[in-house]
Amino acid sequence: MTLPLNANDPCAVIEADRAHVWHHLIQHKPFETVDPKIIVEGKGLRVWDIAGKEHIDGVSGGVWTVNVGYGRERIADAVRDQLVKLNFFAGAQGSIPGARFAEALVAKMPGMSRVYYANSGSEANEKGFKMIRQIAHKRHGGRKNKILYRERDYHGTTIACLSAGGQEERNMQYGPMTPAFVPVPHCLEYRAQWDLSGEEYGQRAADAIEEVILREGPDTVGGLCLEPVTAGGGVIPPPPGYWPRVQEICRKYDVLLMIDEVVCGVGRTGTWFGYQNYGIEPDIVTMAKGVASGYAAISCCVTTEAVFEMFKDDPDDPLNYFRDISTFGGCTAGPAAALENMAIIEEEGLLENTVAMGERVIANLEALSDKHAVIGDVRGKGLFCGAELVADRATKEPMDEGRVKAVVADCMQQGVIIGCTNRSVPGFNNTLCLSPPLIATADDIDAITGAIDGALSRVMA
User: Which keywords accompany this UniProt record (predicted)?
Assistant: First the structure.
């Protein structure tokens, strides 16, 4: 007979976790001799583990999610009140928080008008892919069905999303992949494929997309899905000249531009959405993580009215509407939490803080690069920053992934949680990733980068 778990007994909790929980993105063999880490409480920018140790969270919940920080009672209260009133009804019907948040959201996204609710970033991207594919059948005889994606970008964990992802190590052992997803070159100037720099490099990287379209046949390419800033592939802001040329190419060949804002959305880059830094006008925008800062599960696939209108046809035709459902897109907690999350960002000036603190992160990392030759490149946008580590700055030989992870582990020992590219791009899992909550202060930033300084001094000695 299994006895009820005593939540006040840390050893019992650890053993229950060890015996029954299948954790994400981690090999469990070490747990036979090492305890799994269990986080029990969070407040502001800090979290505490089950042993009572305090940590500064430099990655917003580990996966770029808790944008407004921990312990926000007003969000929890809004969710509680909504759940008591109406917790769920299938998305074929409407709800008050669903209508209110959709209205508030598109007000932040000029040119966009329709919100399709789901419950994860992967699912939101699946919706966008299905829209592009169905439009190919409705408008182009099924031929314009190919979807382009970029090397190093990541769009989710389902088989179709992995098929649209440019991180080979995430795809290994899950093939065969879904057909008609086609890669285009990355745009990381530090790892330039052409002997160009600045705007010339940016335009050339965009021109490479046109070359793929022409190779595949413009009449077969229906969509292009890109992150505004590549996230897990190395924190890669686009070079100047890149995005305007991408927009031009999409319009030239009637290719729907789908922007994956799952990481960058809702303030992470210092604007409501990452694409808004670059003056582009997408057709489809997906988002998830920061939409409700992790206080409830929610994702959105947002489209222009023009895309929406393509699905409004003769109601007597049983196949012409968007035949899709997300069960938990009908949960009302998500939009209720998202409304409060958005209000907090506005009321506390967190977009402005993100810009200022992001500049501080970059300045601190650049100062560290003067001290530590293993920092080959510093890059970022807002509170989404990276430092690429190299074994040799002259040759740009990537630092061994094990040593990069050792830097992360050293910071953890210091009570500072940072991230790194992790088993994604073969040979290039060498970038430290920083994405603290948007509430971060100058002292918080200095503590995070100070921990990196100490870790580099020890690990690379």
Answer: Aminotransferase, Pyridoxal phosphate, Pyruvate, Transferase
Yes or no: say if 367 and 373 are a contact pair by the CB < 8 Å rule: no
Query: Distances from the Cα of 121 to the Cαs of 20, 56, 63, 302, in angstroms?
Result: 26, 26, 12, 12
Number of domains forming the structure of the chain: 2
101: its two tokens: 């948040």
| DSSP class of 270 | S
* Sheet of strand 54-57, all strands in order from the earlier edge strand to the far edge: 39-43, 46-49, 54-57, 416-417
Place of tokens 């290994």: 172
Rounded CA separation 284/226 (Å) = 11
Residues 142 and 162 in one domain: yes
Give the CATH number, domain containing residue 412.
3.90.1150.10
What per-residue confidence (pLDDT) applies to 411? 98
- Which amino acid is residue 256, in one-letter code? L
Q: Is the pTM of this model over 0.85?
A: yes
135: left (phi over 0), alpha (psi -120 to 50) or beta: alpha
The parts of the chain modelled with pLDDT lower than 50 are 1, 3
Domain that holds residue 320: 73-347
pLDDT of residue 315: 79
pLDDT at 72: 98
| Domain contains 32 | no
pLDDT the model gives residue 141? 96
pLDDT at 7: 65
Q: Which are the contacts of 311, defined by CB distance < 8 A and separation ≥ 6?
A: 131, 134, 138, 320, 321, 322
Same domain for 430 and 330, yes or no, is: no
pLDDT at 271: 98
Beta strand pairing status for 54-57 and 416-417? parallel
Nearest to 358 by CA among 441, 295, 255: 441
Tell me the C-alpha distance between 427 and 410, whole Å. 22
CA distances from 347 to 38, 298, 340, 382, 436 (A): 32, 22, 10, 19, 19
Distance separating alpha carbons of residues 429 and 420, to the nearest angstrom: 7
**Residue 74 corresponds to which tokens in the numbers above?**
């007003």
Helices (runs of H) and strands (runs of E) counted in the chain:
13, 16
The one-letter code for the residue type at 262 is V
Helix, strand, or coil here: 223? strand
Hunting for tokens 């140790």 — which residue is that? Answer: 53
- Do residues 264 and 361 share a domain? no
The 10 Å Cβ neighbour count of residue 145 is: 19
Q: Are 5 and 12 in contact (CB under 8 A)?
A: yes
CB of 291 closer than 8 Å to CB of 265: yes
Same domain (yes/no): 353, 313: no
